[in-house]
Amino acid sequence: MTAVQNAHRISDEAEALAVAADLAAQFAEEAAARDAGRQLPYEQVGALAASGLLALGVPREHGGIDARTETLAEVFRLLAEGDPSIAQIPHSHYTFLEVLRHQGTPAQQEFFYSEVLAGRRFANAQSERGTKTIDIDATTLTEQGGDFVVDGRKFYSTGALFADWIAVRATLPGTTTPAGKPTKAVAYLPSTAAGLSIVDDWDGMGQKTTASGTVTLDAVRVPAFHVVPFSPIFDAPTTYGSQAQILHAAIDAGIAAAALNEGVRTARQARPYFEAGVTDAVDDPLLIQLAGEASVSVRSATALLREGARSIDAARRDLNEQAAAVASIDAAAAKVAAARASLEASSVLFELGGTRSASETSNLSRYWRDARTHTLHDPTRWKIQHIGRWTLSGTVPPRHGLL
């Protein structure tokens, strides 16, 4: 375990935003170099854990400040503006702490929340290759002598290489939900557990330093105390999926803002096109149009991000089917807008900067590569379908972790 000694305790949400802004500025300084050399951000992730930002979701009764989703989304947006890879690493940390909030026993919550307050880091092992669809888990969690044994192989395990605890989603053999689907649970394993191995084999063109590699589980023993039901989260209205999605939207919105800022910087240094008849490139009316359009997209994404986060907070205060549905739809709209803005801004920056902005030395392609890679997570085309059905007929969106 790599507990942070004397991890800072953030006192309120204003401090959380100030700490996030400061860290984001630090992370941005060497982000291009880390991306170019695929230098994993061990030091930066350590600073993130020491800052106290990983404990924002801990409930007040367990010693935290139980920050609003609106604040949490802004923290992720700020971090992504500094370095999108670093911002993605704590995503699963927060998502699997929500599993504990929804399904953990009081004793489990007390134990794991104390781990978070101490600076421990959680990562995921949930996605698999080779199954027919992504919602199927071939990884099994088998009861044995009062405890459990987990076997399987997980991919895209973001942040696992930096983590103290690995949250493994697995199927409980021979059991089904009321809907007839295999029952799932989450096993929280120490990263040092015997039979658990983490391989740094992530080779994505973007989000290069998230360490989203492979986790292999070979007869790993799990105390029953470390196993939390997962399937029952979706038996009733929930904000589990919408919160996970709003944090993804925040990452895209952060990429969009950073790309637009970079485009503005390069435009101020660029030579004007001769036909524009102006002295400075920023006075070219066609570049002004491009910058204005991109700015509208980025501003819209940021506004929808905040609206979606507020809907989630409202649903958490008074949870019912209508409120949970609104939260899901609003989070989906934010995700669609942020994905579009990140792709638009990261492409327009080259138009603003001209030919020299395409040099390998400047490494400005990282914005588009990060955006294109991250926006493949949870396809927005299906979110648009759910938004359209809700708009036309009031159809309540399905309950799952991706909406």
Topology:
Layout: H1 13-29, H2 31-37, H3 42-51, H4 69-82, H5 84-88, H6 91-103, H7 106-117, E1 122-125, E2 140-144, E3 147-157, E4 165-176, E5 182-190, E6 196-199, E7 213-222, E8 227-229, H8 240-269, H9 285-317, H10 321-353, H11 365-374, H12 380-393
Parallel strand pairs: 1-4
Antiparallel strand pairs: 2-3, 3-7, 4-5, 5-8, 6-7
Could you list some keywords that capture this structure?
12 helices, Acyl-CoA_dehydrogenase, four-stranded antiparallel β-sheet, acyl-CoA dehydrogenase activity, alpha+beta, Butyryl-Coa Dehydrogenase, subunit A, domain 1, 8 strands, 403 residues, Butyryl-CoA Dehydrogenase, subunit A, domain 3, four-stranded mixed β-sheet, oxidoreductase, Butyryl-CoA Dehydrogenase, subunit A, domain 2
Structure description:
This is SfnB family sulfur acquisition oxidoreductase. Residues 246-378 form the Acyl-CoA dehydrogenase C-terminal domain. Belongs to the HpaH/HsaA monooxygenase family. One of its GO terms (cellular component) is cytoplasm. One of its GO terms (biological process) is fatty acid beta-oxidation using acyl-CoA dehydrogenase. This protein is of the alpha+beta class. The chain has 3 domains: 13-121, Acyl-CoA dehydrogenase/oxidase, N-terminal domain (Butyryl-Coa Dehydrogenase, subunit A, domain 1, Orthogonal Bundle); 125-231, Butyryl-CoA Dehydrogenase, subunit A, domain 2 (Beta Barrel); 236-393, Butyryl-CoA Dehydrogenase, subunit A, domain 3 (Up-down Bundle), CATH 1.20.140.10. It has helices at residues 13-29, 31-37, 42-51, 69-82, 84-88, 91-103, 106-117, 240-269, 285-317, 321-353, 365-374, 380-393; strands at 122-125, 140-144, 147-157, 165-176, 182-190, 196-199, 213-222, 227-229. The strands form 2 sheets. Strands 1-4-5-8 form a 4-stranded mixed sheet, with helices on one face. The protein has a 4-stranded antiparallel sheet with strand order 2-3-7-6, with no helix packed on it. Helix 8 (240-269) packs antiparallel against helix 9 (285-317), helix 8 (240-269) runs parallel beside helix 10 (321-353) and helix 10 packs across helix 12. The longest helix is centred in the last third of the chain and has 33 residues, at 285-317. The two termini are 33 Å apart. The mean pLDDT is 96.
